[in-house]
């Protein structure tokens, strides 16, 4: 294979998104005659996309140097800018700063304006965006978009529009911001942008849709990202983030086994070259573990997520609440909400209301519910309305206004059903049952508690199942709670100190069946050990 033929084949593979083949062809050509600077830049991109981050940065450095030799300072500055941003995303701030400074020096020496000026504005604009200055970020990103338009640079225009949408969202104008995201996605889905820019926009837009509580948009763009990644099967960069977004949707829709698998895939791809996937991979795993009652595992996952530099909220605060530490949870969620911009704060409000109610601060909970209700009036999206109705109903229940709670809770329950979010729907059902009991409608209350308990069991939500079970009427005789007669017998024998083999012999069962009964007992009662099961049996009169 001649060098020229290898270069041509590398270029073709690159255009057709066959990144691994493009890398191989370009490297072969590089070893047999070298590569021009533009092809070195494409090789670097292919290496970065396939997870060879360090190699890709080395190749991009060579492209930068080759452009300098050619006297093409603008292209050299562009390579420096992308080098700086890639290092910034990898957490290597000192090296990133050095490359960005070099790029800026080269741009300053250019005889006239250049689109690279806009590229080099992006890191500072991101600093403003995430450093508490969304108004400053808005102006900076508008300037980037303006430069993109001036020089007909579609990548720069789209990145400027993305940043403008993010700043607009943070300033409390979600409809405008989401409209800008949709516009940016037009360029992505039309195939007008480079692969790296496309991936950045995909992942940022989906994350911000979740932040804005726009579940329908998040679903639509996650499906599009999934297709985009599937068409590029050897791509690592952005694929991990795609799995993280899929995990978040699986958690919401009650597919927790699938969520764990997607979270594991995100973490695996983070190790292979998509570092931005690490947070989502660990945070969503923590969410499933928390909801399943595996609180120590959840804490470890949240800690791993926190090591990425992002605050693992509201999951970590809700974890402390699940442990019965309402005051610690309250301090944590208040701190997070106080430090957040408007968009992030709104995302934290449902957890804040739940925690304030558990900490018996009704006034604080009411303020949070009122804020959610205001958001629902401003943006009557189904998920926002469901969250607002659930929060309002929970506050009414806590305030002793059961009659006022029923309507918003039933509306919220219907919305959760339509959205396919079973965990929150079941939580609404428990609150509805609590309101019914307060209104002396015991039959309806028991029906709601029983339905919620069944739903929680099907999800594998052990703590919530135990909560629902604790509200159901005691049965005649010793209080076995939600257990079947056979499960009660197994629990009684566990409490007497019998092992699985002895229980199997006593009840004429197989050891496998005893183990299954034990698993059901732990799940239904929110327990995790034989010792805890023994304590429960004594506390509820199952043994003398």
Q: Can you give a write-up of this model?
A:
Among the domains are: 361-473, Serine Threonine Protein Phosphatase 5, Tetratricopeptide repeat (Alpha Horseshoe); 475-544, Winged helix-like DNA-binding domain superfamily/Winged helix DNA-binding domain (Arc Repressor Mutant, subunit A, Orthogonal Bundle). The longest helix is centred in the N-terminal third of the chain and has 18 residues, at 53-70. Helix 3 (37-49) runs antiparallel to helix 4, helix 4 runs antiparallel to helix 5 (73-89) and helix 12 runs antiparallel to helix 13. It has 29 helices and no strands. It has 544 residues and is mostly helical. It has helices at residues 3-15, 19-31, 37-49, 53-70, 73-89, 93-108, 115-130, 134-150, 154-170, 174-189, 195-211, 215-230, 239-252, 256-272, 278-292, 295-306, 315-322, 326-339, 342-358, 362-378, 382-398, 402-419, 422-438, 442-459, 462-471, 485-495, 500-507, 511-525, 530-539. Helix content is 78%, strand content 0%.
Which terms would index this structure?
Serine Threonine Protein Phosphatase 5, Tetratricopeptide repeat, 29 helices, mainly alpha, 544 residues, Arc Repressor Mutant, subunit A, elongated
Number of helices: 29
Please tell me the overall pLDDT: 92
Largest sheet: none
Q: What is the CATH-assigned architecture of the domain at 361-473?
A: Alpha Horseshoe
Q: Into which percent range does the helicity of residues fall? A: over 70%
- In the predicted model, the low-confidence regions spanning at least 5 consecutive residues are none
Q: What's the count of strands?
A: 0
The CATH class of the domain at 361-473, by name, is Mainly Alpha
Helix/strand class: mainly alpha
Could you tell me the CATH topology label of the domain at 361-473. Answer: Serine Threonine Protein Phosphatase 5, Tetratricopeptide repeat
SSE ordering: HHHHHHHHHHHHHHHHHHHHHHHHHHHHH
